[in-house]
Write a structure and sequence with these properties.
The protein has 177 residues and is of the alpha+beta class. 19% of the residues lie in helices and 30% in strands. A hairpin with a 5-residue loop joins β6 and β7. The chain is globular and about 45 Å long. The structure holds nickel (II) ion. The site of nickel (II) ion has 5 residues, from α2.
């Protein structure tokens, strides 16, 4: 079922979410179905459970090609529960981000370039990956939602925050430079 996505200003987006304790349950399956339906409906690159008002440490992300981020390569579709994120190295890079909770806006956000993430899939199987670039950016963005953080709270230059159609009038989001 397609759910409403909470928008910035809703206090539920600022909560620290709780770990999932029961895997492979009807409740978790229903939550993931709703998250997938909602993300697909909005062409999102990712979605975190708090964005639909559920304070559990569950995120989904991934796409073959994203109309919201036409300049980036595919990220495998992933269900990530109770994630742990560990930066690899000290490199940071700036890149444009949007969020379904801030429709129509983009901002340039510093993120760790590379990281390891670990967590559980919906059957409770643990997995781990090392990633960089946009994949690492998406993981940091989505996992931040589980700690009540929205991307503007990570920005250092609010001069690089604005409406997508004003920032990118030709419709193409500028590649990272
Ligand atoms: Ni978001």
């Amino acid at each position: 079922m397609i759910r409403d996505v909470l928008r910035m200003g809703d206090a539920r987006l600022l909560r620290v979410s709780r770990p999932v304790e029961a895997f492979d349950s009807p409740e978790l399956r229903a939550l993931l179905t709703d998250m997938r339906d909602t993300m697909a409906h909005l062409d999102g690159a990712g979605l975190a459970a708090p964005q639909i008002g559920v304070d559990l440490r569950v995120v989904i992300f991934g796409f073959e090609s994203s109309p919201r981020y036409p300049e980036v390569g595919a990220v495998p579709f992933t269900v990530l529960i109770n994630p742990e994120v560990t930066p690899l190295g000290n490199d940071e890079e700036d890149g444009w981000e949007g969020c379904l909770s801030l429709p129509g806006l983009r901002g340039r956000v510093p993120r760790h370039r590379a990281l390891r993430y670990a967590g559980f899939d919906e059957q409770g199987r643990r997995f781990e990956r090392e990633v960089d670039g946009f994949h690492a950016r998406v993981v940091q963005h989505e996992c931040d939602h589980l700690d009540g953080l929205l991307y503007p709270m990570r920005m250092r230059d609010l001069g690089k925050f604005g409406f997508t159609d004003v920032l990118f009038p030709d419709g193409a989001v500028a590649p990272d430079d």
